[in-house]
Prior knowledge:
Helix content: over 70%
Number of strands: 0
Number of helices: 5
Radius of gyration: 46 Å
Order of helices and strands: HHHHH
Strand content: under 5%
Amino acid sequence: MAANTATPNPATTTASDAIAATSPDETVATGSANTAEAKSRFTAALNEAKAGAAALGAEARDRAGIYKSQAQTKGGDMSADAKATSRDLVGEGKAKASEALGGLSRMVDENAPKLDERFGQKYGDYARSASRSIQSTADNLNEKSVEELGEEAREFVRKSPATAVGIAAAVGFMFARVFRR
Length: 181
């Protein structure tokens, strides 16, 4: 019988058959080539993943920048609207307070003659003096801008904080009594 020297069929050859059929030097060379190819493919895939992550990061930064600028713009618009509205409301409040002080001054001045008759000239003069003082305060309030009034209030609080706290407490108590009923 003849020895089996036939060439193996590549379709039915397994990896172990291929390794057995090759010499040890060929096996090391083939293994090294496969390892090198696997490493290069892995490195290429890793580089592609890094590039994709960098692109996603750049896109995220760009979108975040866009959203930030939109939020700042909307916030600035809303802030400007709020400031304008508050200035209008403060202006209306200032006008109403000035009007109320003027009315109080007129009422005190109109009642001064009655005080003269009931309690004497001295008390009527006190009422007229108070009326002039109230009217002067109303006129000053009318003449000054909202910004000037705000600065004067801040200056008053800096100079005498205890008095400011006392006034705030008294006004708060008064509002509590008025709105509690």
